[in-house]
Amino acid sequence: MDATQLLKGVLDVAVLAVVDGEDGYGYDVVRRLRAGGLQEVGDASVYGTLRRLYSAGALTSYVVPSDEGPHRKYYGITPQGRLMLEDQRKVWADFAITMNRLLQEVGAA
Amino acid sequence: MTTSTIAPQITAFATAVRTALADLTDEERDDLTEGLEADLAEAYAEDLTNTLPDPVEYATELRLAAGLPVREEKRESLLAALDQGWKRTREDLVNVIRRNPALAAAWGFLDSLRPMWWVMRAWVASWGLSAFFGSEAGFLPTSGLWWVVLAVAVTISVQWGRGRWGFRGLPVIVMIGNVIAAALVLPAVAIANDWQRNVEYAYYDNGPGDLTGVYLNGEQITNIFPYDREGKLLQDVRLFDQDGKPLATAVQGADGCIDPDCNEVGLWVPSVNENGVTAFNGYPMRMAAEGEKPQDRKPPFETVPPLVGKVAKDNQ
Q1: Helix (H), strand (E), coil (C) string for A40-77
Q2: Largest CB tally within 10 Å, which of A71, B106, B116, B311?
Q3: Nearest chain A Cα distance for residue B33, angstroms
Q4: Residue B125: in which H helix or E strand, if any?
């Protein structure tokens, strides 16, 4: 099984969790996800996800101008995004427990 | 927005991504790609071995992750459609070759020769361009400018061959260019070869055509320094051969080296007789650099040992 396939389902909650810790711009979020162990995450997928979460009202965004280069678009979490994160955390935790149990039982049988 | 610190290939890549998202509203597109250059620049500054992905695929990934509709095939430009078609044909071809061991071995061998082709097509391009301007002659460039053109063409061709400096639609341009270059290679080589031979003939024609000159052991003498009985250098001595023909080492307009390293070239300056006729047999000849006064040539000896008389016996 390919971890990138699994990642598609959980990228939203992963991105929300990262931004919840601290506001970040696109590549900064990619870097933090990779540092967190999601090495395979594609940067375009992350940028697209940020945009979709923003449209859904889970994130706010603001532009920070830079003297040295093009400006950066930062994303921060909204109260709605925090609710979404909490909800998905529970879903993931339940799902992970279910899957672990299932796999262990099948493996033991 | 300042883009001065962004590498041009990143700017080009971001532009290609935006082009691939052209069917979205301005707002959607800006939302998706705002800060793209900064993000890419940071990503590629961090890992220089990174290569930029295909901008169209990148745009599709962005679009899918953002939950936006994927662009319909029919809205693609002709160039992009050709690009896609060429890509698929190539993939099919590669699969066919892989399945056949003999073809695969032959392909592997030809594949190793690809860099040669990159140089060859660059030569065809620069040669063709110089031919267009009428500056071609033989296989090699005729001047520094055309050497530069050749060098630039080789650089671009090799970089494209290595998959660098790409942009959207480039594969199609390269494909068309390859076909044209392949078609022109033989004619260009044939014409260049003709030129080369003509140039050689021209040298043969010009070489012995002018029979003036004084030779010593097959080497042309450029100047003569006469000394008198006391061993002092003489000026304006006129020399003739046994038939009364002037011993002329140079003719009108002939040039030579002013300095031993031949950094500067000057014209031989003839003498004039009282009838106003120029004489190229007055020695030592003087030389003038362009626009300057004639100057004496440095004699091989200031003086030579004086002569004391004739030998009593003959040579035998």
Answers
A1: CCCHHHHHHHHHHHHHCCCEEEEEECCCCCCCEEEEEE
A2: A71
A3: 8
A4: helix B114-132
Q: How far is B36 from chain A (nearest CA, A)?
A: 8
Asked if the Cβ–Cβ distance from B62 to A47 is below 8 Å, we say yes
Residue A67 forms contact with B (CB below 8 Å)? yes
B-facing residues of A in 16-35 (CB < 8 A) are 25-27, 30-31
Least Cα distance to B136 among B178, B198, B57 occurs for B198
Task: State the nearest Cα–Cα gap between A27 and chain B, in angstroms.
Answer: 5
Which pTM was predicted?
A: 0.42
* Whole-number Å distance between alpha carbons of B129 and B135: 9
- The chain A residue lying nearest B29, using CA atoms, is A51
In this structure, how many other beta carbons lie within 10 angstroms of the beta carbon of residue A18? 22
- Closest C-alpha among B211, B239, B246 to residue B225: B239
Handedness of CA B63, B66, B69, B75 (dihedral sign): negative
Calculate mean pLDDT across residues B276-290.
Answer: 82
B260: helix, strand or coil: coil
Report residue B89 as tokens. Answer: 């044909």
Of A26, A31, A48, the CB nearest to B66: A48
Q: Do A26 and B67 touch (CB under 8 A)?
A: no
pLDDT value at A70 more than 90: no
- Residues A66 and B35 sit within 8 Å (Cβ to Cβ): no
Chain A residues within an 8 Å CB radius of B66: 47-49, 51-52, 55
What does the pLDDT look like over B59-113, one tens digit per residue? 888 888 888 877 665 555 777 777 778 777 887 888 788 788 888 888 888 888 9
Q: Tell me what the pLDDT averaged over chain B comes to.
A: 80
Structure confidence by residue, pLDDT tens digits, B234-271: 888 888 888 888 888 876 666 777 777 777 778 888 88
What's the CA gap between B269 and B296, in Å, rounded? Answer: 10
Q: Distance between CA B139 and CA B191 in Å, rounded?
A: 9
Interface test with A, best of B34, B37, B68, B70 (most A CBs within 10 A): B34
3-state secondary structure of B271: strand
